[in-house]
Design goal:
Serine Threonine Protein Phosphatase 5, Tetratricopeptide repeat, 14 helices, lipoprotein, signal
Amino acid sequence: MARSKILASTMAAALCLVLAGCSGSGSSDADRQNLDRFTAEEIYKRGEFELENSRKPEDAVFYFSEVERLYPYSEWAKRALIMQAYSNHRAQNYEEARGAAQRFIDTYPGDEDAAYAQYLLALSYYDQIDEVGRDQGLTFQALQSLRSVIEQYPDSEYARSAILKFDLAFDHLAAKEMEIGRYYLKRGHYAASINRFRVVVEEFQTTTQTPEALLRLVEAYLALGLTDEAQTAGAILGYNFQSSPFYQDAYRQLRGRGLEPEARGDNWLTNVYRQMIQGRWL
């Protein structure tokens, strides 16, 4: 048994040395002619070797792509396609990773690796989400793709991770609304700031941004002299986040005006408050 393992390892190493002459700095005609002499499995194994040992995942992509080109619709081509998506993702070639993952989903929708392909597709968007200030188009695409993992493959090993990332991406969108709202608030554009904070309260109410959004609504409405709305925002904040420092701040501001955090008047915030009391809030 030990001798057979040593022999197998020696043969694999020799194969990698033979194929090394076709190294993936690019897919030239000479490279392709050289690879024509090898089986799909041999080329695939070379791709795995490059992925494990090379500092450039692009080298592995070349070999996996050649498997698909030389042996289309084979079992090895199918495996190579998912590895193209993975290798491109590791190389941070996100657009190429999405392309390979989508081709896998389109070609092999019922395959057991389709869930992983969908997850890689979602990650290719998610991993491009960075600072709040950037355009949020990628965040929306990440949410859509993560939702596909959660809904289409709820029992897969990737569903839980997709849920966690979905919540983080959702929070990211809310943070963007907060950033813009604070910008308007600091410059005295109270109506514009209220519109942004309202979006957070109504559409992103399960995110970590909601307590601050309610505090900023208190501030903005007090600045406009709309005390009913300010008091109601404070009441919602106290009901859901009484231990939050945002509530303490809102309470001090209301008391400084001789006001209490309580639902008053008939406005969009009192509607939210009524929904909350009826158990349909958060």
